[in-house]
Structure formats: C-alpha cells, structure tokens
Amino acid sequence: MIRHFVYYLQVNRLGWKRMMFFSKDFILDQVLDIVGLVLGLVFYRILYFQIKSSLGIPLFDLYILVLTVKTVNDFYGLFFSSNISQLPQRVQYGTLDHLLIKPLHLHFQMFCSIMGFKALGRLLIDIVLFIIIVQQFQIHVDFLHITTYLLVLLLALLIFTSFHIILYLGAIIFIKFDAFTSLFTSFFTLSTFPGVIFAQPAIKWLFTYIIPVLIIGNFPLLALKQGMTRSVLLTACLCCAIFLTLAYSATRFMLRYYKSATS
Amino acid sequence: MNNYYYGLARQTLKEGMAYRTNFILSFLVVLIPLLGQLLLVRFVYQNGSSLGSWELSSLLAYFLLARVTSEAFSITTWWDIKNDIKNGGLNNHLLKPYRYFWHNFTVYYTLKSISISVAIIITYATYVVVRGSFLVPIDFISLIQFLVLSVVAAILSFLLIFWLSILAFFFLEIRFVENLLSILLPFMTGSILPLDIFPGVCRTILLSLPPAYLVYYPARILTRSMPWPDFLILLSQAVLWVLVVWIALTTTWRKGIMKYEATG
Fold this sequence. Notes:
The structure holds two protein chains of two kinds.
Chain A: H1 2-21, H2 23-51, H3 59-79, H4 81-84, H5 87-92, H6 96-100, H7 106-111, H8 118-136, H9 143-169, H10 178-185, H11 201-210, H12 213-226, H13 230-255
Helix pairs in contact in A: 2-3, 2-8, 3-8, 3-9, 3-12, 9-12, 9-13
Chain B: H1 2-17, H2 20-46, H3 56-72, H4 79-87, H5 90-95, H6 100-131, H7 140-165, H8 175-189, H9 200-208, H10 210-214, H11 216-223, H12 228-259
Helix pairs in contact in B: 1-6, 2-3, 2-6, 3-6, 3-11, 7-11, 7-12
C-alpha cells in the first residue's frame, strides 16, 4: 500500500512540475472552462427569460444540475481520465506491457495512477460557483443534505468511471475505436438536462441502468434537494455495485485477449 | 486549370469515401445532444409555455435544420493550411500554377459534401421519427431563398476558416482560439437556441454578426420564408460580411507571406 502511495506521489509530482512549466496552457484551459460553464448556465437563463414560468423546475436546480455534471467530469478528469483515455493507445502500440510487468496493482496502474492536474483548477472553479449560486438564490442547505449530495456525487463518479473503463476496454478487440467511444461519451452531454424531460419509462430506464446519464447529474441534485431518500440512495448504490463489478470483470476478461502486438 | 480542380475534387472524394463510417459516427456524436434539446423543447410546450413566436413544429424543424447547416457552414481552422504553414509545405503550393485559396476550397467542400450528405440522411431519419411524417413542409420560396443564401454562406464560411487558419503565420499554437470557437460558436450561430429569443442587445448583436448568416438565417428561412425585400436586405448584409472578411483575409495573407520563412 505504501509502495503504491510513494509511486503515486512520485509520478504525479512530475506531472505537477510539467503543468507548472506550461502554466500559460493551464491558465488558458481555465479560461475556456469558465466560458463553457457560464454558457451552460446562460442557456437555462435565456430559456427561462423566454418562457417566464418555472416549468415546475426552479432555475437554481438547473444551475446546480449543470454544475454537478461538470464536477463529476472534473473529478473523473483529476483522478481517472489520464489513465483510462490512454488505454486504446497503449493497446495499439503494445505499451500496456509496461504496466503489466510492473510490481504494482494492475487496476491501480491501468486506471488511476496519473492525475490530470488541469482538472484541479476546474474543480476549484466548480466549488466557488457552487457557493455563489447557493448564496445568490438564498437556498438553505443543511449539513445532512450536503453530506448526502457528496455521497451520491461519489457514487456517480464511480459509475461514470466504471462506464468509461468498460467502454475503453473495447480497444483490446477493435482497432480505430475513437469515433465509437466519442459516440458513447457524447450521451453524457444529456446529463445536463433535467430528468423530467425523459418522460418515457423505456428512455428513463435506458439512461439510468444502461448508459447512466441520469445518475451523473439528476441523482446528486435529488439528494441535495430531498436529503437522504431511500429510493435515490438505493438506486445509486445498486447501479454503482453493478457497474463496478462489470468494470472489474470486464478488465480481467478482456486482458486475456490482449496480444501485446504493436502496430 | 478547371481540370485541375475537378481532378482534385474527384481524388478527395475517393479518399473521403474511405472514411464514411467515421463521418456517420462523428455526425451522430453531434446529433445526440440535439435529442436533449428536442425533448426539453417538447417538455416546455407540453407545459403550456412557448419560446418567442415559435410554434413547436417549426422549432423542432429549426433545431434539426440548424444541425445540418452548422455541419455545412462551420467556422473552424483547416488543418491542411495550418500544417502547410508550420511544416513549410506551402512552398509546393506557391510554386504551382493554381490558387492556394481555391485549392483548399475544393478539398474542403468536397470532403464537406460527404459529411453534409450523411447529415441530411440522418437528420431526415430523425425528423421522420420525431414528427411521424415523411413529408418535410418546406415551401418553394423558402428553398430558393435558402439556396441563394447558402452560396453566400459557403463562401463566407470558408473565408473565415481560411483567415483563422493563416493566423498560423503569426502564432505557433492557435489551439486556444479553436477551443474557444468550439465553445462560443454553438451559441453565436443559433445552433443551441434560435437567436431571436435572446434578450435585447445580445440578440441585436448576435443577429448582425457573421455566424448568424451561417446557421441561424439559413435554418430559419427553411422553416419560414421571408418577404423578398427583407431577404434582399439580409443577402446584402451577408455579402457585405463576405467583403469585410475578404479584405481582412487578403491583408493577413500579404503580411503572413512576408513573414513566412518557408522552413519546416
């Protein structure tokens, strides 16, 4: 365990130094992030400006929804994305061997050994904006609601990560996988829409249990609004267990087909 | 010389067709967020609200058409031009007896013709599913106005692309500009929401900027034709933008060529 921790620190210290060296890149990335986030919020502001009614969904909820989805994405970017998104490249060029022969836990190396430091700045922006929005709308949020929100957010992050692991493992079988992964990951752009618009049960079911779009944004929002409700927690926990098991089994299964051949 | 551009288009088409699956998948990627927009708009109207003067059927059609027009007339940077400038490949083109601008125009729109065809087929299929009808209610005047405006939009779009790409003469890295455009343009073109529902000054500004002539106006005209006098004013404004961008482009090109060291 300590060995892993030391390795994690050493690898990421280099990453941190690299980011500091390219500090201009980092700052520009944060600027883009703020612009993107503001436009995401402006979308709902303009919509509400026109319809002049709340549609049964307060504007605050929609802002928090956008922010929650971004937070999950940024946590994923901070802890997992750098490793998982490299998987197709590692398979294609045979460099996955470098990980397989190291005396460290395989899943740790494949999925979470490198941090994406750019996401750290984005997370700080998320937290600041969250505080601003809560104060702006004068919403009373107690400790229990925040705890539940964070818990469901963590479950959403694990589900989101597991889904991406399962998706990217396909690179072991299929060559030129980029367009296919882009197609599936693009479904998560639907996370920023309120769950009520997915009225049909089949669509709701699809976007909860197969492509967990609704869990990423709408579930943490429900947790923040309603507190510790059994249905939200139970569904989130169940989905998390299923997706984690699937990701774990899929990794073990798919690695059997890894040929270690370069192209 | 026309034979050269014809041959170039044929060759590019053959190359482009080799990646047709990629074109289909990449268009589906941009179509998925549209599903959210369509469902949201339907939800708004089901709750008795409306967006500006838009009827639900027109708005749904607008979103689908805007997706096709944004595929056809986008603003981005063209990697061929950037690479030529960065790696010194521009030398080859400057020595040959053709116009570098028209060479890239031919390659760009030949490749675009494949992605536009894919976009039209997928969007039509989506329309049939969403509306439950095979007939698209586009009147003849709308179609004529759309085609005329499209010619100007195609030129304006490529002038902007060419202009942004030759900024590589002056900057080593223009990724920030590309990323910023990819975030701002869906809003500025009217792909996310029709520009006429934006509030006050914001609407006036956005409606008069070039991106509006590439997506919003063509898509809007197809859903609702304009009176001819209004259309002619709109067309003249678009032509004016073409002239402005062309002047900016030729100035930048001249300065860029002076600065270009042909190394790479």
